[in-house]
Amino acid sequence: MRRTSRFTDEAAQPQRELEMRVYMIGYDLNRPGQNYGDLIEAIKKLSNGYWHWLDSTWIIGSELSAVAIRDSLMPYLDASDELLVARMASEVAWDGFDDDAANWLRQTFNSVAV
Prior knowledge:
By secondary structure, the protein is α+β, with helices and mostly antiparallel strands. 32% of the residues lie in helices and 25% in strands.
């Protein structure tokens, strides 16, 4: 699994930071041999920044609602798949991640609008 994160360019879009909500996206693609590539690209396109250190779990920043994110991802799923999109609060705790992962979490949750 490739672990990745991407930060929003705050200098280029300072107002977007104020409007950003943080969501956790989790999914299970249950049909053997299913392609995650298109779903992963769709998640990246929806986000202003993302964190992906756990297999099928993403944390993203977005101005969209949870329903809008879900609806945007549904074309990449089939009837046997499962998807969860949940808005996160500002209280988070973690352990065991490298500096890159921890720094992304720290930066994101210090600036999240609740």
